[in-house]
From TrEMBL:
This is Putative 4-hydroxy-4-methyl-2-oxoglutarate aldolase. GO terms for molecular function: metal ion binding. It comes from Paralcaligenes ureilyticus. The keyword Transferase does not apply. Substrate binds at residues 97-100, 119.
Amino acid sequence: MKTLPYIRKDIERVAPDLVKKASRFQAAILADVGGRRGTLGGQIKPLHPSMKVAGPAFTVEVRPGDNLMFHAALAMAQPGDVIVVEGKGDLSAALCGTIMVTQAQASGLAGFVVDAATRDSEEIVAGSFPVFSAGTNPNGPTKALGGRVNWPVTLAGTTVNPGDLIVGDADGVVVVPRENVEEILVLAQKKVDAEATRIAAIKSGDLGASWLQQTLVQAGVIKEGEVL
């Protein structure tokens, strides 16, 4: 029986030019055009609302409260990568803090997304490296338990595959499957253009929503021909 590796060193990443294009869009736009799916649960938030991140996922699975494999990923990840940690939502111990953030920034990484606690938040917020997490805790982790690197992980109800596109901002984090990124970006631009047109119309005095009346009829809330 063949033994599968715990650590996968080679992954196919979303292309850098697509990451750059994607970074111009809000996470909400990408989520909408992706079928209102792919967003991590709302408990995963930036340590500060100004933080933004975009890049290919470098995935890590750890045991709750232990960051051994997080350190392994930090030693392996390439510039531009976003380390995405499946920490099982555990908030009993922080999986990273200032030291790991400093190492990641010096290595050219794009950010951390951690489904667990982090710490040293005041120092991290004072810097420029984006960290998204499920919470904070001053308690430190153990460094002893095995896990996996660059396998599919699940964070807050959403699956993330190695190399998928990660985009995060004040609203949270969205995951775009690597093979769908080009299509999603085309749709995202169309939505941005459509929303700009609608906002301009509202500011010009057109306060009605053209879709609302018929949708209310279809939902059985009002009758055909009835108006609000």
